[in-house]
Amino acid sequence: MTTGSRARSFSSAAARYADHRPSYPAALFDAVEEMAGFRLAGARVADVGAGTGIASALLHGRGARVVAVEPGEGMAAEFRRRNPGIALVRGDGDRLPLAAASVDLLTYAQSWHWTDPARSGPEALRVLRPGGALAVWSNDPDTGVEWIAEQEARIEKRFGPGWYANKGPRSQPGLDFATRRLRWSRRIPVEAHLAKLSTHSLFLVGEPGTDAFLTAERAELAALFPDGWLREHYTIDLSLAVRAP
User: Is 215 a domain residue?
Assistant: First the structure.
């Protein structure tokens, strides 16, 4: 299955994605402000690969003037339904529909790995004002937690390594990234965790065996968490680069 097919698969489950994908803690946006050197309140922010608006809504809540950029028709429709007060344009990180030097902050939440860095890097430099910042982050399962590491091992045993493809950016001309790692968690029902798992591209594109895997995983988790609740643990790897003034 191609990367493009996986990227397009999210629109088929946009409402489920919005309902079950994790949010982000306030500490993430505190770190963005600290590393960027300016406040989000009043900043012109473009959230690229915005999906259903999980990060866009939080940035908007911090007082940023947000425009969301989203290529997928289904995701864009769900975004508009849930975030009627936030501007949205259709496009992707390789061809940003934004004017040169027009934004203070460019964000990629769970979406940089769907771009071609040879294109998205120069595009970021084009649309950022001097002194503006590019911030890239992802919610990744914290495999330092035993049950999460065991689940990851089961997935890789069945479907092979690389199923979870959040790859951070690498430094390139004009973009020298600093990094920060944060940890957080949320307590949710086992069924909500399985629904979240089913929104990842591996499961959305219908790889053979995914339905059977989720059924077996339900039994594994029921034995581990007999009260029907679990705590998901995440690491957030934040990479941020400031464009030279």
Answer: no
15 DSSP assignment = H
pLDDT at site 142: 96
CATH value at residue 17? 3.40.50.150
Provide the pairing of β-strand 103-109 with 44-48.
Answer: parallel
Residue 234 half-sphere exposure toward CB, CA atoms < 13 A: 21
Q: What share of the chain is helix, strand, coil (3-state, %, to 5)?
A: 40, 25, 35
Number of domains in the chain: 1
Domain that holds residue 58: 3-141+166-186+234-242
Task: Name the burial class of residue 99, with classes exposed (0-12), middle (13-18) and buried (19+) by CB atoms within 10 angstroms of its CB.
Answer: exposed
Residue type for position 99: A
The pairing of strands 103-109 and 128-137 is parallel
pTM over 0.85: yes
Task: Spell out the residues 6+ positions from residue 150 whose beta carbon is closer than 8 angstroms to its own.
Answer: none
Q: How many residues does the chain have?
A: 245
**3-state DSSP call for residue 160?**
coil
User: Looking at residue 165, what is its pLDDT?
Assistant: 61
Which amino acid, residue 189?
P
**How distant is the alpha carbon of residue 167 from its chain centre?**
11
Give burial (CB, 10 Å; 0-12/13-18/19+) of 45: buried
Q: Is residue 131 a part of any domain in this protein?
A: yes
Residues of the chain under the 70 pLDDT cut: 1-12, 162-166, 205-207
Helices in the chain by DSSP H: which ranges? 3-8, 14-20, 26-36, 54-61, 73-82, 117-127, 146-159, 190-197, 201-204, 210-224
Residue 112, domain member (yes or no)? yes
